[in-house]
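Researcher: Please translate sequence to structure tokens.
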Amino acid sequence: RQASILPRLLSIAELQKLARNPTIARTVPVRQIMWRRFSLLVMNLLVLLMGLPFFLLREPANMLLQGVKAAALCIGAWGMGLVLLETGSRTGAADLPPAFIAWLPVAIYLPLSMLMLLRVRT
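Model: Translation complete:
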């Protein structure tokens, strides 16, 4: 079990070395781990952008209520993104490239975050 977790803890340079080794690259989804790291970074930024419009208000409002709304949306979106990443890697969708599986949450959240940002009244 510990050996299966180890590749997730390696640096990008070490993962690239593993990807060049043909015997290890077949058993460990190295490319998928690298793509997931970059897509998780972008997904976190998109979730932040989804919560931002709750605080950019023209008129005074209850910030505690706005914070609860933003937290509900952001925690739900972040959790769903992690679920999408994990189920995509667990199903082992052999016919889908690892980049597609890793960037699927980003493709879903990009229009949603833009829609939320367009709701801000200036």
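Researcher: Any highlights?
Model: The mean pLDDT is 84.
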